[in-house]
Amino acid sequence: DVYKRQREDQVDDVIVQGIATAATGDATSGGDITVLGVTFDFAGSTNFEDQNDLLITDTAEINALLDSINSSNPPLIKIKDKENSGITDGIADEVDLESP
């Protein structure tokens, strides 16, 4: 089921995809996003991508995406926390808006 998929891509990378259920913070200060009950922090180093896998760099667009997560029709999101030096740190490296 596309809405309830959790997998590991590489041995230590964590990828969670599903309907986002909560978001806090903003593009400038960082915050967190919850998908499938798993909460990931995001920071200025986190890459946000649209449904066409294009990088979103405009803070207003990122904030609009975060606002949509807390709406009555939250989006399908894929979060990647990539292994770095043998660990994942719980900070999203990528937040991708997905097509259902």
Task: Give your account of this protein's structure.
- This protein has 100 residues and is mainly β.
- Helix content is 11%, strand content 44%.
- It is built from one helix and eight strands, in the order E-E-E-E-E-E-H-E-E.
- Strands 1, 2, 3, 4, 5, 6, 7 and 8 form an eight-stranded mixed beta sheet that branches.
- The radius of gyration is 12 Å and the shape is globular.
- The termini are close together.
Number of helices: 1
Q: Can you write the helix and strand succession as a string?
A: EEEEEEHEE
Class from secondary-structure proportions: mainly beta
* Oligomeric nature of the chains: single chain
Residues in β-strands, percent: 35-45%
Instruction: Indicate the overall shape.
Output: globular
Helix content: 10-25%
Regions with pLDDT < 50 over 5+ consecutive residues? none
Give the overall pLDDT as a whole number: 87
Largest sheet properties: 8 strands, mixed
Distance between the termini: 10 Å
Report Rg: 12 Å
Kindly state the number of beta strands. Answer: 8
Secondary structure elements and their pairing?
Elements: E1 4-7, E2 14-26, E3 30-35, E4 38-42, E5 47-49, E6 55-56, H1 59-69, E7 76-81, E8 94-98
Parallel strand pairs: 5-8
Antiparallel strand pairs: 1-2, 2-3, 2-7, 3-4, 5-6, 7-8
Q: What's a quick, concise take on this entry?
A:
This protein has 1 helix and 8 strands, in the order ββββββαββ. With 100 residues, it is mostly beta strands.
Structural features:
eight-stranded mixed sheet; 100 residues; 1 helix; 8 strands; mainly beta
